[in-house]
Design goal:
Order of helices and strands: EEEHHEEHHHHHEHEEHHEEHHHHHHE
Shape: globular
Structural class: alpha+beta
Strand order of the largest sheet: 1-2-6-3-5-4
CATH topology of the largest domain: Cytochrome Bc1 Complex, Chain A, domain 1
Distance between the termini: 53 Å
């Protein structure tokens, strides 16, 4: 159990510590999580959290640009960072006796990141180029439009990278203000898992971070998405050799009792997968969507996904259809499978296979100390460590009646956005 022997502590400045000692390998992984992502961005400032993440790799007052990489690589470690809708995180995995280096780097850039004006402008070009690269991918263009159509009020409506119009206008002062507002100890969780004494490690973290002043309480996200009242449709036309479908339904947040039944429902449709954005792979060839769409030749590929988030987000089904494929038939087939979940009970055997596979994927995804630290921090962002502790047992308690109940509640036409990317080589 990932939460066994977990030391938890909160420093005077508000920093939460999660430390787990394990000697499965002579390494340790340190993750620093901030409660800030695209969910916390205002109109006109979309993409600012992702951009700040980039800037925190540009050096701090005592370590110039490139020094972070050199120091970590010299010790045989690896490190990175990422931003998503609810959080930003940075991590490093190193030989256990050198994990203090990661603490020093993160404590330094928590309070002393440079935000050099020239580097800011340079990074603007990098991020806009990244976004323009995404715009060459049909799946991205469709996702952006479907996500925007799925939310009328909530900031989940925009992609993490932000709108290009905002990226062109955001200033160095905007970035620095965002950094000072959200990247503070009282808005962060520090996680260490590895071959170090837990009490000693907690003391090391306190030494590195304890003197950093508490920041002001960051503003709360007040937007609440109104209940959908009508199905919405999106069509994007563009170049390509195939058509792409994306269906999106509002789904419960991680802390909702309906979340684990939705995870099981997802596994019945698409086989066992990990949770986004870390999930991938899957055991879906025997699952319903693959059998009905891919094995029959209606679609080239099909996937379903449900994400663990703070606020209600999206359950999605995507499919790739050949240039000469019948798009209408693919859409009807998927809707028929969803209707079956609402009207017919999933068999105990099918549900047991789906849950067993999901448990296996969870186990595979939490073998390393890096991933164990990741899961502890991720759970702290979207819910809490008790949510993580109860994940597998809660999943095992899901019943066929639970599947049918959540299907009826969430998989309704009014709660749905249907989006198509239609290849220009064949128009209707």
């Amino acid at each position: 159990m990932l939460t066994d022997n977990l030391l938890t502590r909160t420093l005077d400045n508000g920093l939460t510590l999660l430390v787990r000692e394990t000697h499965t390998a002579p390494v340790a992984s340190f993750w620093l999580w901030y409660r800030v992502g695209s969910r916390n961005e205002l109109p006109g400032l979309t993409g600012v959290s992702h951009w700040v993440e980039h800037m925190l790799f540009k050096g701090a007052s005592s370590r110039p640009q490139g020094e972070f990489d050199r120091l970590i690589q010299r010790e045989g470690g690896h490190f990175n960072g990422m931003t998503w809708v609810d959080w930003t995180t940075f991590y490093a995995t190193l030989p256990a006796e050198r994990i203090e280096l990661a603490l020093e780097i993160e404590a330094d850039r928590m309070q002393n990141a440079l935000f050099d004006p020239d580097e800011t402008e340079s990074e603007r070009s990098v991020i806009i180029s990244e976004r323009e690269g995404n715009e060459n991918r049909p799946g991205y263009m469709l996702r952006e439009q479907v996500q925007a159509a799925s939310f009328l009020a909530h900031p989940y409506r925009h992609m993490v990278i932000g709108w290009k119009e905002d990226l062109r206008r955001i200033t160095r002062d905007d970035l620095y203000a965002h950094y000072r507002r959200y990247y503070t100890p009282n808005n962060a969780v520090a996680v260490v898992v590895g071959a170090r004494d837990a009490e000693e490690m907690a003391g090391r973290i306190e030494t590195a971070f304890g003197a950093i002043p508490r920041g002001e309480a960051p503003p709360q996200v007040r937007a609440v998405e109104p209940k959908p009242r009508a199905q919405r449709r999106v069509r994007v036309d563009g170049p390509g050799g195939a058509h792409y479908l994306l269906m999106a339904y509002h789904a419960p947040p991680a802390s909702d009792p309906d979340f684990l039944p939705m995870v099981a429902l997802n596994a019945v449709l698409d086989g066992a997968t990990g949770l986004p954005p870390f999930g991938g792979g899957g055991l879906g060839r025997a699952a319903r969507l693959y059998r009905t769409l891919v094995n029959s030749g209606q679609a080239i590929s099909v996937n379903a996904s449900v994400a663990a988030t703070i606020d209600p987000y999206l359950f999605t089904i995507s499919a790739t259809v050949a240039q000469n494929g019948d798009r209408g038939q693919v859409e009807r087939t998927i809707l028929h499978e969803l209707e079956r979940l609402q009207t017919e009970s999933v068999s105990q055997d099918e549900l047991a296979r789906a849950i067993k596979g999901t448990r296996a994927m969870f186990a595979y995804g939490s073998e390393s100390v890096t991933n164990q630290a990741m899961w502890l921090g991720f759970a702290s962002m979207v819910a809490d460590v008790d949510w993580l502790a109860g994940f597998l047992d809660g999943l095992a308690r899901v019943t066929p009646d639970d599947i049918r109940r959540v299907a009826r509640r969430y998989l309704t036409s009014a709660n749905r956005v249907i989006g198509w990317y239609v290849s220009e080589d064949r128009r209707d």
